[in-house]
Give the backbone structure.
Amino acid sequence: MVSPPPGAAAAAARARLRVGPAPRPLMGSQGRWGPPGNGRPGEGEGGEARKLQEGRVARGKRRKGKGKGKAGAGQGGRGSGAEGQPEPQKTTEAAGLGAEAGARAGPGAGREGGGSVEEGARRIARGAEGSAGAGKEAKGRDDGKKEAWRVRTGRREDARPGRAQGRRGQAWGRIAGTGVAMAAAAEEEAATREPAGRPAAGPALWRLPEELLLLICSYLDMQALGRLAQVCRWLRRFTSCDLLWRRIARASLNSGFTRLGTDLMPSVPVKERVKVSQNWKLGHCREGILLKWRCSQMPWMQLEGDSLYISQANFILAYQFRPDGASLNRRPLGVFAGHDEDVCHFVLANSHIISAGGDGKIGIHKIHSTFTVKYSAHEQEVNCVDCKGGIIVSGSRDRTAKVWPLASGRLGQCLHTIQTEDRVWSIAISPLLSSFVTGTACCGHFSPLRIWDLNRLLCGHKFSYLWDKCPGVRLPGHLEGRGWREQAGAQRAGGCDHRGVLAPGRGPAGPGTPGTSPLSCFLSDFSPQTQSGQLMTHLGSDFPPGAGVLDVMYESPFTLLSCGYDTYVRYWDLRTSVRKCVMEWEEPHDSTLYCLQTDGNHLLATGSSYYGVVRLWDRRQRACLHAFPLTSTPLSSPVYCLRFTTKHLYAALSYNLHVLDFQNP
């Protein structure tokens, strides 16, 4: 077979170039543009095609930036075969590599590459794909950032074509925008829900048993515990333990703990109560008005659970608090009536409302029913009333104090009458039911505070209770005909034999003596000499004339508080002295103190007679802690009643019922 002459192949190649449109020139192993098969530069129409291609490359370089094209030009166009392939980390810079390499490749470089035409074509294709991918990636990133900005600002432009193209180009743009934000929010929410475990790494102190950690942290103050809670989740949970905050709460104001350490609100976390207690200490609160009246009133109020009971004229209205505790449902839960004149005072006891009216009557209402009883108690208005343990005591302007039973079968039967020789403004029963105290107008030659023995006054009432259980007992001569026998079929109690008579050998002896029946003790106590009542003691000896006591309350069986016209709040301890108070606080503006209220520990609140001034006192200090004037000069009014919880304080004035919100100041 005869081979064609050397020039024939070149002529045939030139003839193919003349027919039809000029094909895209290929790149050899050295990246130089020229005809396939030889290393010399093209001539004729091939040269024109080469110029057109170089112009396209130059325009592409200007659009994409000259810096990317020059970064790896030397490494993409030298060598042969695998040596001419671009590095993996430089694929994003493949745009313009072939042009740079072709511009520097010399003639005959294709022969050194060994099959450089096909490999050069593949490299061109890879470079074009890399440049296109880089362009789509950059465009998708920009669109993803714009999408995240639109989601954050609440703008959505679904009709924008660029955003749709970016979504088709690269999905990771959306992940970098909204997806990352949503993932971070979900992770944070999951972290708050999952229980915080003890950290595996850290100081050796955290690996101690929890009992030892509690003992160590119990010496920290409130500020140190707060800083420790910011270290990690586990320490935040650990430092929220009630045991760590109990000591701090007992030293705080109005935190729900009594002086003896009794927790009055076990359902509320102690740490939350300590936070609110700081607002009481600093005086941070928000004032509001719960109720208004058109005419002047002298209201009295009581709190029970989520209900508020307040007197208006001759009615007592019950309202329910809303969940925030700083507002009321406008529609009352109930209305209790029965007095002909204004209600002066009332208390809540055993699901009953016991009210004292200006008409000299006492009213008894069952809270959850329509049962109401009203009976005449005094000749003049009843200023005060108290009820504990089924016993009612009342004080009146007619200079008497009376004792009444709360039993349904004996309502209205006066158990005893005490001649106080002065108008009674306030009264309170001891928590042990052993005595009660009266506060009078101090118009005589005796102290306005006197304590009366309730045990001896009620010995007949107690005997009646036991006699109902021992119907066969023969009464002493001075008790015959007094109507003690009321329930003939009651069962026998201790102190009675099978014949129903007082057992011999169990005569009157001291209470608690072995072999002594309770009945014999009460029989020995109930004698004609004790029926007139017995005064236990006077409190104080230096009261000036007219220093009447307007409010008095027992804080414990041996301690009580009083206030009144002499502008002093006095704290009495019966175990220490009855002649002098333990501590006293003076109203700075010499105003009469109408009412007082205490949390049973350190906080004391008083209501003054002018401008509706409510004062807060820390009982460990002499000076007033904070003062809140609730009315202006034209509407000056006394504070007739005060009540508070750990979050709110309520003050009843002539025209309004005010609230001080310490939870949300």
About this structure: The mean pLDDT is 74. The radius of gyration is 48 Å. Residues 116-153 form the longest helix (38 residues). Residues 58 and 564 are 102 Å apart (CA to CA).
